[in-house]
Amino acid sequence: MNAISLVLDYIEEHYHDEINEKTVEYVTGCTFEEFAKKFKEKTGVTFSTYLVRRQLTRINDELCNITCEKDLNCSPFQSWEELSTLFKSEFKIPIDTATKNEHFILQEKIGSKEWNMCDLVIRDLLNRFECPSKALRYLLSLQPYYFEVDSEVIQPSRSNLISSIVKKVHGELSLSEFRKIVTILENYYMLESDYYSKHSIDVSKRYILVFRGLINKLVWEYGAGFDYEVNELKTLWSVSHDKELISHKWHSNLSQSVMEAIKQQDLGNISFANIDELFGWVDVYFSKQKKRINNQNFNKFTRYKLIEEGCKNLEEEDLTTMINTLLVQGLLFLQLR
């Protein structure tokens, strides 16, 4: 087993410990400088970055399962505040968001099947698009799919699932067109046991989204940025017309407001020329206190007047963060024009 594998395994067993240069030298028997150089060459990421992300990921896995705060172990971080700050800095989302959403994919163990798959696909994307941000934009523009699960076959085979999606969405195709779509599904989408179930009530409906690990890897390791126009944003609702997607209880007030705004755009009830117009609309609906205009001529989409005292007004940075979070979750996607 080589030095990198030894350290990777050590992290998995000791992620609550402080792992420093001396630890690496003890485990590998070589100098830290030599190890760090080899690690970067083989993995494409610095050892320090991987270490903190993997420790945060493993601790987040624990948080998903603990039932009492006293069981929380923040080590090797000094406090919950330090852990939370580092988490948001590394993954661009609050740790609470990741803990509540089991489908978020954080730092995979290097060398694992999932990591290797992402690495190969990302390299292919970068060869095609050259720029990480263009590759990210392509992934975010691949539409979600949904399908009805047969009551007798809760988890269809991979080939049957792919054939079902292609036939339902694209109809009859030539062999070359069919193979092209299958390649996209197999490389970029979560399939089989990685179904992204968006509907917690009707288990007969499943949603297939672009593999979240690909998006996260482009953002975290390659510095890709989100680049979109407001009129390109679409909700998953526009694919399935599933009302429950807009009213999930786990959505925050802000995320519900964003989803509702984009849904109204999907329906053609409203149009946002730019982010400022969207900001103004969402700000009204996000405010904690609202006063309905008492006039029967106004419908439910009429803007509310804000009560200044006690209101929580929206910051533009919060809106951008929420849109990006919903894009990563798959509840929003891009429709290129």
From TrEMBL:
Coiled coil: none annotated. Residues 5-63 form the HTH araC/xylS-type domain. GO terms for molecular function: DNA-binding transcription factor activity; sequence-specific DNA binding. This is HTH araC/xylS-type domain-containing protein. It comes from Evansella cellulosilytica (strain ATCC 21833 / DSM 2522 / FERM P-1141 / JCM 9156 / N-4) (Bacillus cellulosilyticus). The lineage of its organism: Bacteria, Bacillati, Bacillota, Bacilli, Bacillales.
